[in-house]
Amino acid sequence: MIAVINRLVNLGEAVVQQVQLPLTGGIKCFSDVLRIDKIHATVSGNKWFKLKYSLQQAMSLHKTTIVTAGGAYSNHLVATAHACNSMQLKCIGIIRGEQPAALSPTLQECAALGMQFHFTDRISYTDSRKVFEQLQQPNAYFIEEGGSNECGVKGASEILQLVQNDHTHICCAVGTGTMLAGLLQSAKPHQHVVGISALKLSPGNTIEAFIGKSTNNKKNYTIHYNYHFGGYAKKNNELIAFMNNFYTQTGIPTDFVYTAKLFYAITDLAAKGYFPANSKLLIIHSGGLQGNRSLPKSALIF
Ligand SMILES: *Cc1c(COP(=O)(O)O)cnc(C)c1O
Q: Which of 84, 111, 218, 277 has its CA 20 to 30 A from that of 69?
């Protein structure tokens, strides 16, 4: 059963690439970038890890439909659409907001993969499980937005199996915190997990409560909340310029919602001496590149 889920992606592509941050000037910090963005073009790295056990559970319960939720540019929606398409499961997306005049490139791809849409106003959307229940789909299985559930944490805890886990710091982008919770689960006590929030939040939020609950209150992590560039999916010219420069210097493409903010932040923290001498960083490139389709074509050089 898990074989069909495993065949969706190519884990052999998840190479480790070395970069020295900051790229120019200052004390260099040794960093390994784990390229789980490369395991599939759109079943973007961390989304596959977060989905696999939910899909497995749905299959073992003989469900025939997957229902999940997301916004018009959601990496999770398109990953779910791909997975359901390959697994011959019916797939319904509860989409945040009213039906637009033109579908985003992400939703067009979802539709081409057979996903049906249920557009939902922003207030009802905040309780997407309730929307799911109201749909009364027979034999359906609900997966939370972003694959954010205990299955998601379990899947994400397997990411570190791809590397020789000898780093001092493990750095990742944070949306719902599911990936961070999984990494923290499998991190060793002396390793510190560094999260960069893509959302404009303050410490002591529900994400931290979720992480605490799913890791038995492990404390060896820090989330930085000052690299969101104005909030979720917000960007400015400095971030876009950073993405192009980072690509020129390293050959690593990033997405403006999560991984660009991650690499920007780690570069900035390294330049400011946040990481002690002889630190060995692992930076998770969690994918998400399909989201760049919402940018003007001329913005990026990759
Ligand atoms: C969804 C996503 C994240 C956030 O993961 P969470 O588990 O929700 O914190 C990070 N990076 C990319 C590329 C994503 O698509």
A: 218
Q: Is the CB of 177 under 6 A from ligand 1?
A: yes
- Pairing, β 169-174 against β 280-285: parallel
pLDDT higher than threshold 80 for residue 21: yes
Residues 179 and 49 sit within 8 Å (Cβ to Cβ) = yes
User: The whole model's pTM is what?
Assistant: 0.96
Task: Give yes or no for residue 176 CB within 6 A of ligand 1.
Answer: yes
| CA 244 – CA 299 distance, rounded (Å) | 9
Q: Is 195 in the pocket of ligand 1 (CB under 6 A)?
A: no
Sheet of strand 90-96: strand arrangement: 116-120, 90-96, 65-70, 140-143
Could you tell me the pLDDT band of residue 26, with boundaries at 50, 70 and 90? Answer: low
Question: Could you give phi then psi for residue 227, rounded to 5 degrees?
Answer: -125, 30
Distance from residue 179's CA to the centre of ligand 1 (Å): 7
Distance 177 CA to ligand 1 centre (A): 8
First to last CA, the chain: 37
Q: How confident is the model at residue 182 (pLDDT cuts 50, 70, 90)?
A: very high
- Measured in Å, residue 173 CA sits from the centre of ligand 1 at 6
178 lines ligand 1 (CB under 6 A): yes
Residue whose CA lies nearest to ligand 1 atom number 5? 175
Is it the case that residue 91 has pLDDT exceeding 90?
A: yes
